[in-house]
Amino acid sequence: MFKSYDDEKTFQLITAACKVSGLPLETVLEVFGQTWLKFCMDNGYEEMLRTLGGDFTSFVQNLDALHAHLSRTYTKLNYPSFRCETNNDGTLTLHYYSKRSGLYYIVLGVIPQIASVLYNQKATITVDSREEQDIENGILDDHVIFTVKLSKNDGNTTVNNKEDSSTIENNKELVCIRPTFPKQTIIQAKHFCNIFPYHLIFDENFVIKQCGSMIQILLKTKMERGSSLTSLFDLTYPRVDFTLTNLMAFINSAFLMTSVKKRNGHSLVLKGQMRWMPDISHMIFISSPCISSLQELKAMDLYISDIPLYDVTRELILLNQQRMAEMEIA
């Protein structure tokens, strides 16, 4: 199960399946997509999949995060990226990006299964357009745009649907609740920068407008007006060119940014989430230091107290240290 096969062998297998079944390539890939969800659920991932999102859209929006998690185990995984937009007519626009050309037919099979099995909905999916897009240094990604229409399921699902009526009702209650927001923020920028010491806000031209306090301290750089994000940090994940178009395309991914300037011979690596703020045309990057051990903490001349109390990075470092100590004792 953990063995990796290159695409050449995969396509040889698909070609053989086409010859034996007499079905065209597109149909074989779509049928594969229809069985993929059941395969994953039958092999230990059912609970993870059922808790990924409270509704279909949330599920799709979090697929990139799931893939990033799985890449720690499946290190050679070359996974696609998904982005979902809600249209005025209630349909969804689904963006699919992949460096593996021609596999998008799998999406046509797996999306209806996700809707039916996990959310008791019927999904009709059609291909709107397909193009090759330059994402990184001339490397072309397959960019396919689908339209997804969701409707109430007739109750017949092709894979066991273990979601009971009480769970469905709870989900309905969550969906019906609409949060309220103040007309204006009551927190000063100074407090925001201290509470979220590893955040950045920048405009469409990558000019930094606001920066967390610890980033400035660690880089020994005051963020003056007009400071350029791309002169201070390199985008190391996703592996795409550092452009606003790419940030928007992979907005559901976890981002890694590495400082150009080094501290004690080590770069500051930040891991976090990008969020576009359309009302002011700015992007906010909420992050944490990408550190998992006391050794890495010391190398950066950092202390645990430099990491906010709410940040799970603290627990990760201490848990890893405890595990290492237990191994030494054993």
From TrEMBL:
Occurrences of domain Heme NO-binding (ranges): 2-126
Domain Haem NO binding associated: 263-329
One Gene Ontology term, aspect cellular component: guanylate cyclase complex, soluble
GO terms classed as biological process: cGMP-mediated signaling; response to oxygen levels
Record bears the keyword Lyase: yes
EC numbers on record: 4.6.1.2
Protein name: guanylate cyclase
Annotated signal peptide: none
Record keywords, A-Z: cGMP biosynthesis, Lyase, Nucleotide-binding
The organism's place on the tree of life at top rank: Eukaryota
Molecular-function GO term, any one: heme binding
Pfam families registered for this protein in UniProt: HNOB, HNOBA
Broad enzyme group: lyase
